[in-house]
Amino acid sequence: MSIQIDISRDKRGLIRDFVYETLKKNIMELRLEPGRFISEKELVEMLQVSRTPIREALVKLTQEELIETTPQKGSIISLIDLQHAEESRFVRKTLESAVVREACELLDKEQVLHLQNLISLQELCESEQNYGRLFELDEEFHKSIMIGCGRGRTWGLIQQMATHDNRIRILRLASDSDWKIILAQHHGIVRAIKEKDPDQADKMIRDHLELLLIEKESLKQKHTKFFK
Amino acid sequence: MSIQIDISRDKRGLIRDFVYETLKKNIMELRLEPGRFISEKELVEMLQVSRTPIREALVKLTQEELIETTPQKGSIISLIDLQHAEESRFVRKTLESAVVREACELLDKEQVLHLQNLISLQELCESEQNYGRLFELDEEFHKSIMIGCGRGRTWGLIQQMATHDNRIRILRLASDSDWKIILAQHHGIVRAIKEKDPDQADKMIRDHLELLLIEKESLKQKHTKFFK
DNA sequence: GCTGCAGTAGTGGTATGTTAGTATTATCAC
DNA sequence: GTGATAATACTAACATACCACTACTGCAGC
Q1: Mean pLDDT by 10 residues, chain B (228 residues)
Q2: Does A125 share its domain with A20?
Q3: The whole model's pTM is what?
Q4: How far is B80 from A23, CA to CA, in rounded Å?
Q5: Residue-range definition of the domain harbouring residue A120
Q6: What three-state secondary structure class fits A37?
Q7: Which end of chain B has the least Cβ crowding within 10 Å, N or C?
Q8: Which residues in chain B are closer than 8 Å to A151, comparing Cβ atoms?
Q9: Domains held by chain B: number
């Protein structure tokens, strides 16, 4: 029943957090497959810690709808819920377009430069077809805009809500995404911010976030057992 | 060290949930004061349950920033953070105005009627000066709009983020809020939805949510020890 | 072969014991 | 009296033990 998962234990810090981080990472990257049954006992053996920190980590993950627990029965990695994904997309689009408007006022030259650097790195990854890293840099780009506007908690909310949608995006990574278009849009967003044009920035980021929407149904056909 | 708090244990259901609900309610209603030190041992005596479900409830509350725990030291009810409150207000205003636009399309006659009934109840409470219940009905009003649009999770997000701002609103309840204005705005919002005028609905709800903003600084002066 | 029920293995929920870190307090050297 | 330090009294973190519930398995009766 054992499975290969990423583990890297930092001796400092709480075991509870280690368990939480480990599970979350492996769920989000689909090494722990949606629908997979997972018992506390199994985790005890896998991670070599007692049930207490495991249970506390599971409580957190349950709260984020990444795990579903039935009393006296067991837990499963939550199936991907398309409705959940749709709503998280709505939330993200709504909040991020509002923040990017603020960004036109708030971001200084240095921060804009940082964004441009991120795009350069993204272009590098794209040319090397390193799509995993590219995904991370994409997140980093959006995060930087929000943090720069003092909207760190808002970014946290978006992330928390994105637990289902982001797994879909990981599924899509295999097939080639339209990264060239995405990078062009990143350029466009930064340009709008630089030129302090909130309407344009808003429009660009909405187009951008809508691009990622396609193909959900076909993905569901392809990986039926992962979906609700 | 004991304190009077609301407890009502439902025998069915998990103890963990009972502890969580009890603490959350008492924190949000300020019976457990921001900054107050609270140990697991104290909760054991107060609630007459073991440490395990208490710890698991505290993990959840910590994740929602209602409790702050320092390893090997203890926990406190989190101080009200004005910056947190401001950001939650931004999130709420942004999301709710987007949803209310959808509402103009999505809500049917029956749902609109339900909203009008809620307003009637609110007016009743206002005339009776039952401000506690009025607060709940206010929340119910906004919640109904969002649920009606299939945005239940979005409402959950807003609520989760509102843990600091809502405590400020409770503080304000003592002083008389401008409930008459608020109720007039509720009428306006419903009217805009009924007439399927998204721009108007958007504008009304923004005005509405901005009204609640005032006096924060003076409240902070008045209850210094509750604030960060 | 099918149905019903008793036994049992396995699960998560809860209680309690143990460990390790922190802050305070009492004590001792000066 | 003042400073350093050792004892100790707290805490939360972690480990383990126990309990109640679920679901399956296999046998008995038909």
Answers
A1: 56 88 95 95 94 97 96 94 94 96 94 95 90 90 96 96 93 75 93 94 91 74 89
A2: no
A3: 0.89
A4: 31
A5: 82-226
A6: strand
A7: N
A8: 87, 90
A9: 2
